[in-house]
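Notebook entry, structure prediction.
Reason for the run: the old model in the group folder had no record of what sequence produced it. Starting over properly, with the input documented here first.
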Amino acid sequence: MSAKAWTHWYRWLTLISIGALIPPVVWILMRKLHATPSGDAWYFHWQAALIANGSGWFISPLPYLYHQTIVPSALHPPLWVLVLAFVDKLGLDSYPAQLFAAAVLGAVAVFVTGLAAREVAGPRAGLIAAAIAALYPNYWINYGLGLSETVILVIIAAVILVSFKLWRSPSVSKALVLGLLCGLAALTRAEQVLLIPVVLVPLTLLLRDVALRKRLQYGAVGIVAAALIMAPWLGFNLSRFTDATLFSNDSGTTLAMSNCRPAYRDGYLGSGDFLCLNHIPSVPGDESVQDAHQRRVALRYVDSHLGRLPVVLVARPAREFGLFTPLGQLRLESTVNKRPLLPAAIGLGAYYLLVIAGVYGAITLRRRRLPLVPFVGILVELVATAMVTFGQTRYRAPFEVVLVVLVAVAADAILDRRSGSADETAASEETPVAV
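New structure, fully documented this time:
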């Protein structure tokens, strides 16, 4: 493409990304303008506020707000809190203002998704992907929840973009950037550390026309880059808790609420029930000690219900990927997570259509001998995480990016075939036939 054509393309991508602000902004104005955060969103909001106003660096909000007591806390990795703290510093310290800021970050996610699809299948695919992402409810619903999935959308799109750049033109710098992105993903949601073994490592090992020594070098550079960007947070946590803490102190809570009677037999099968935590007595000690205690309780429950475990392990990813009680899951999330029911229902229908088209996109890439590693790796990571924890629609956010890119590949391939058929028809009509 000429420089003028590229400028035109970027102009369209920018316009689509700006247009992506419309659905979430309208929704926030209609339903969230006077909302207050709850659940994880409450924790993120207030921990960011405490950092922004200098009250404490990653401390538990509740003891400080009610008793002015500083208690170290790492219930979640730090990146989303730091983003919100930065937004606070800009003067956007109310919860609705932060949701508007998240919508702007969501527009960035749409832009990067377009860049990723362009790298995978060309300029037209890039604009198609951006348009889908701008309208797709399972993208923009996340912006209005005050949770970390908005950042995940940006990072996963960037991971796909850099993965294909590395595949086409391997270099140390690209491997380093990919490693940094994997590290940033882990600093947003702890389970995303699995991107290193399921995307970074296999992709570098499978690079075409590259000597084994070079492939190992690229993989090592990526791993070291990821480790370096994660190291400050890991070191900070290891220095301030009784029990060893790496990314977060939330694993015990997650396991306890997903390994109890309701999560094994009742309407919560494959999900988690916060009420289960009420039956676990607290123990003396800091957050890490509580986390370890809840984890032991959860593992004892698993050990005494091994016969039921296979059903639960299947139900968890099935629930997350819309294969088990999908409407029930939407209603559950509407109540527990304040996820809007109508947009979520529209998003569910769109999701099923995207899955069908995405399969064709994956087949297209396979025929073109392009790597499926980033897409398959992300899917494997999500399934494995859901099996260990529980299924929830918002945890599927990385796969939504995969779907949008693959559907753009499919749509671009179909348009290519149609234009090719039209060109062949026109050529045959112009060719004289000997009589």
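Summary: The chain has one domain: 3-413.
The old model has been moved to the deprecated folder.
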